[in-house]
Amino acid sequence: MSLDHRSLATRLNGLIWLEVCNGCTQCSLRCAAGTQASRAEWEAIRRYVAQLSASEREAFEQTLKQSKQQSLGDGIEVTLCRFLDRKTNLCTIYPVRPLVCRLMGHVEWLPCPIHKIEHPMPRAAALEILEVYAQTERHSFEEWEQIAPLLDGVADSRT
Ligand code: SF4
Ligand code: SF4
Q1: Average pLDDT in the 7-18 region?
Q2: Which domain of life is it from (predicted)?
Q3: In this structure, what DSSP letter does residue 96 have?
Q4: Are the CB atoms for 12 and 95 separated by under 8 Å?
Q5: How far, in Å, CA of 135 to CA of 22, rounded?
Q6: Would you kindly state where each structural domain of the chain is located, as residue ranges?
Q7: Closest CA to 96 of 146, 144, 153
Q8: Confidence class of residue 153 from pLDDT cuts 50, 70 and 90?
Q9: Which residues are near ligand 2 (CB < 6 Å)?
Q10: How many angstroms is it from 115 CA to the middle of ligand 1?
Q11: How confident is the model at residue 5 (pLDDT cuts 50, 70, 90)?
Q12: Which residue in 79, 85, 155, 157 is a FRET match for 48, CA 20 to 30 A apart?
């Protein structure tokens, strides 16, 4: 199975009803720093950012500058994902979010916290995808930023 971003997304779309999550923010506190992406997924994110309009790009860059620190009480503080907009609690790269984000709520080991998804994707299909995905080069967003910076080296639609 090819694991470029488009084929992966197509395969997932055929297995699970991803639209149920569109616009929902109820699990946004699970969007933690350190989320991993494959090279193909990171390149898809870079292309997505490069095609944003000037106003969208401006808003995106403001999101990156937001503090991602979140107190959970009892002195516990977590760092949330750099792509989470703290004003809306929405993902700013939603159409190109990586596999782990797409699986949230749709596999039995990452259940939907509000029980909106009654039927997770078949375990065998999820494991088949993960088995192949696990063989790809993966890094956290923070590591990819060092390897191939998001806002550098990709054509900017504003120019
Ligand atoms: S997994 Fe559940 S809580 Fe998270 S976005 Fe989907 S429906 Fe909302
Ligand atoms: S990429 Fe989007 S969906 Fe994934 S952890 Fe970050 S904000 Fe959440």
Answers
A1: 74
A2: Bacteria
A3: G
A4: no
A5: 29
A6: 5-142
A7: 144
A8: low
A9: 31, 35, 81, 83-84, 91, 93, 97, 101
A10: 8
A11: low
A12: 79
What is the number of residues in the chain?
Answer: 159
Using CA atoms, how far apart are residues 47 and 157, in angstroms rounded to an integer?
10
Least confident of 3-7, 19-23, 65-69, 140-144: 3-7
**122 with 15: CB under 8 angstroms?**
yes
Residue-wise pLDDT tens digits, 38-62: 999 999 999 999 999 999 999 999 9
The whole-number pLDDT of residue 132 equals: 85
What pTM, to 2 d.p., does this model score?
A: 0.89
- Long-range contacts of the stretch 59-67 (C-beta < 8 A, 24+): 59/92, 60/92, 61/151, 63/92
Q: What is the arithmetic mean of pLDDT over 72-97?
A: 95
Ligand with an atom nearest the CA of residue 63:
2
Residue showing tokens 């997932």: 12
Residue 85, helix vs strand vs coil: strand
Ligand nearest to the CA of 37: 2
